[in-house]
Design brief:
The complex is a heterodimer. Chain A is mainly α. Chain A contains nine helices and no strands. The longest helix of chain A is centred in the middle third of the chain and has 35 residues. Classes of the chains: A mainly alpha, B alpha/beta.
């Protein structure tokens, strides 16, 4: 998420220049890369060849926090690559839109530094759509959409559980997983709404807003 | 209109042969083409012209707001011994808001919706002055009071969406005044507001001009607004100045047919109502490929052979006058031709 914001910001600020093009290509590669393929490649090179990370499986956080972290780094990277690419593209286009807003011109006319204009006035207004997407995606990932990643890395997660249930045509667990996913999507949506109100005061309820 | 004395002490701002063009997908667009003028301290200079005549681009270029990878700016904008077109971004940033401030056309979109009005003023103050948040806040409350916002202590805590259009424009003016600039550039400050609010905003601008000796560049297409507050008037057409004179000269002795057309299209309450409002027929020219010769020629009913060549902007009324225009017609001829149904106009409405 952090990387996505940094990349999107850079990309928008340097729109049309080399940095922007390079980041665009990277982002597109990230979006297009099949998760199972990326996961397999990472596993092969970083664990079998370089032995940087332990191969697959999972160590519970309660047993050994360090090992837990060590085992999860690769799956995290795998998942993040897709989202970084996607979010940085969305952020870039949002920022370019917002830069043409009148209030950005006002901010410049006040004599604010370009950096301040971009961060306070452009970035903040561009984050709102990103937050929406993030809420939905995060809910989905927690609720089992990481099925491919979990399968490749052999992590006993919700996705893997659902995958096995599908394999054996076991319906009750599937219904459970669906409910579970639905719950998280709704839950993160609520959180997103709260963050919205923080980012954009127009969304705050309570006092009636004059038109 | 107290400025005549001040003008003589030398101009505060002087713009010389300013040219601004933008590269677009359709070709190079020459938005401003050789504009020169001076602004004395305490003076109100109005720039009038229809949409696309280059008046806003001229004003934004003074502030350096048209700097972009696809724009090209030539000529000079001299202020306080410096050429603003040659300043680097940081030096220009220091000037913006502090010495030259700007109010934009649409107050609905010119304030950032996600910050409190007070904070937006504070932000401008603190970008230039090293004072505490609290001091700046107190100052912005005072400013809001000055521009006539009732209950400023509470209002400063409001977000822009809680303000009406007129209040937002007042807030914009408060923001522009926050650092006591020498020059206020008001780009159609009253266009997006309804008429009663327009009058209030203009009155405010006029008061500030009078009480603080603030020099104002007022950009508008509304000659009624000009008549209220301006000392001098520049009429722009297709990126060029076509006429430049004092308020009285422009209103009572206009030299350029385009100015006649603008004046003719005003409705007058003191005269019988015309059957149809007079207008200037035709379309403003494309700035991608401006007409050769006089730019107003294709729309001008008085055009003749000489108009194939672009008339320079010069004084044609004899020595002693500073009233300049871009029209080949002889001043005596103009006097005759601009009479339409007993008032100044371009042609008899169809």
């Amino acid at each position: 998420m952090t990387f996505a914001i940094i990349f999107g910001y850079l990309s928008a600020v340097r729109a049309g220049q080399f940095t922007d093009r390079a980041l665009t290509i990277l982002a597109l590669i990230g979006i297009s890369m099949p998760v199972f393929w990326l996961a397999a490649i990472l596993l092969y090179y970083l664990t079998s060849k370089l032995q940087l990370f332990p191969p697959g499986s999972y160590v519970p956080l309660s047993e050994d926090p360090l090992e837990w972290l060590n085992h999860l780094i690769l799956p995290w990277i795998t998942l993040a690559v897709l989202f970084i690419g996607f979010y940085s593209r969305v952020l870039r286009s949002n920022m370019l839109d917002v830069m043409n807003e009148d209030y950005v011109r006002t901010a410049r006319a006040k004599g604010l530094s370009e950096r301040r204009v971009r961060i306070r006035h452009v970035l903040r207004n561009s984050l709102i759509p990103i937050i929406t997407l993030f809420g939905l995606d995060f809910g989905a990932v927690v609720g089992g959409a990481a099925i491919l990643t979990e399968t490749v890395y052999n992590i006993p997660g919700v996705g893997l559980y659902a995958g096995e249930a599908i394999g054996t045509l076991d319906l009750p667990p599937l219904m459970g997983v669906t409910m579970f996913g639905a719950f998280f999507i709704v839950f993160f949506n609520t959180i997103v709404d709260i963050v919205y109100a923080y980012l954009d005061p127009r969304i705050r309820l309570g006092t009636a807003a004059p038109a | 209109m107290s400025a005549t004395a001040a003008i003589r002490t030398g101009p505060l701002l002087s713009v010389e042969d300013l040219r601004v063009s933008f590269r677009t997908e359709d070709g190079v667009l020459q938005a401003v083409d050789g504009v020169s003028f001076e602004l004395g301290s305490g003076e109100v200079l109005a720039i009038v012209g229809e949409s696309g005549s280059g008046k806003s681009v001229t004003a934004q270029t003074v502030m350096g707001l048209t700097r972009a990878p696809n724009s090209r700016i030539e000529g000079s904008v001299r202020y306080g011994g410096k050429d603003l077109n040659e300043l680097d971004d940081e030096a220009l940033r220091r000037l913006r808001g502090d010495e030259i401030a700007m109010v934009f056309q649409d107050p609905m979109t010119s304030l950032n919706p996600v910050y409190r009005v007070g904070d937006q003023i504070v932000e401008g103050i603190r970008a230039h002055r090293d004072i505490s948040e609290d001091e700046a806040w107190t100052r912005s409350v005072e400013l809001l009071r000055l521009v006539g916002i009732p209950n400023p202590e509470q209002r400063a805590r409001n977000y822009p969406y809680e303000f009406s259009g007129g209040m937002r424009q007042r807030a914009m003016i408060a923001m522009a005044l926050s650092l006591e600039p020498e020059i206020l550039i008001a780009d159609e400050p009253s266009t997006a507001l309804d008429v009663t609010i327009q009058a209030q905003i203009l009155q405010l601008v006029e008061e500030l001009n009078r009480d603080r000796d603030l020099a104002v560049i007022l950009i508008t297409h509304d000659l009624g607004v000009v008549a209220e507050v301006a000392d001098r008037v520049i009429v722009m057409y297709a990126g060029q100045i076509v006429e430049h004179g004092t308020l009285d000269e422009i209103f009572y002795d206009p030299q350029h047919p385009y100015t006649w057309g603008l004046l003719g299209s005003l409705t007058r309450l003191d005269q019988p109502r015309p059957k149809r409002l007079p207008q200037i027929s035709g379309q403003p020219p494309s700035l991608l490929a401006p007409p050769s010769g006089c730019r107003f020629r294709p729309r001008c009913p008085h055009a003749f052979e000489a108009c194939g060549e672009l008339p320079p902007l010069e004084v044609r009324l004899g020595a002693g006058s500073e009233h300049s225009d871009r029209c080949w017609l002889d001043p005596a001829e103009k006097k005759e031709k601009r009479e339409v149904e007993g008032r100044i106009g371009l042609e008899v409405p169809a």
